[in-house]
Amino acid sequence: MSGEGKEPQAIRKLTPGRLVIASHNAGKVREIAALLAGRGLDVVSAAELDLPEPEETGTTFVMNAELKARVASDLSGLPALADDSGLCVDALGGDPGIFSARWAGESKDFGMAMDLIERNVAASGPAPARTAHFVCALALAWPDGHVEWFEGRVDGSLVTPPRGDKGHGYDPMFQPDGYDTTFAEMDEDLKNEISHRGVAFRQMVAAVF
After folding, report:
1. Best label site of 20, 61, 75, 82, fewest CB within 10 Å?
2. 42, 50, 74, 84: which one is catalytic?
3. Can you list the alpha helix ranges (DSSP code H) found in the chain?
């Protein structure tokens, strides 16, 4: 769905040209670039432009995505696309949620973060629920301040031990409903078809291209 009560069809269209991906996460940038392939866009990351990583002070995925997109667009003078996504674990009351990246620490050690989730789930009670979902919020900002929002979700469950060496982040511990493989075991095309990011991107593509 598009965010903040906006109509599904965005008024502002994204024209071919340079687009900043407001992320310093190389895996996420590659995934987003693949989803945007063939759209006539010259994709460049915030890291390549040496743009700073703003502090994510929002209380929702949409707010954090907008914050990152606005900063990248303001500083670069180009349209900017930001993604804020995370893993929400039912047994942990939705954590790590918007703090998913922060659970991995400054070194972005997601092996440590997945172990932390497992320990917390185990401590949450006898026979804890292992259901979880990923959320992805996209914000597309222009230098004049215009922003469009989109949000996607995919439900699944946690697996232990983590499996697979594809993808990034928490992908090795997440198995989407209806599949017997984790995101980290899937081919990129299949993951992009069913993932929270893929859902949000299809909404964005339908609206702004």
Report:
1. 75
2. 84
3. 26-35, 61-76, 110-122, 188-194, 196-208
Residue positions in the annotated binding site for Mg(2+)?
55, 84
Cα gap 168→175, rounded to integer Å: 14
pTM of the model: 0.88
Task: Report pLDDT digits (tens) over 147-205.
Answer: 999 999 999 999 999 999 998 899 999 999 999 999 999 998 999 999 999 999 999 99
Of the candidates 178, 182, 88, 191, which has an alpha carbon nearest to the alpha carbon of residue 131? 88
| Residues in contact with 109: Cβ distance below 8 Å, sequence separation at least 6, in sequence order | none
- Specify whether 155 is catalytic: no
- The answer to whether 42 touches 20, Cβ cutoff 8 Å, is no
* Binding residue positions for substrate: 23-28, 85, 168-171, 191, 196-197
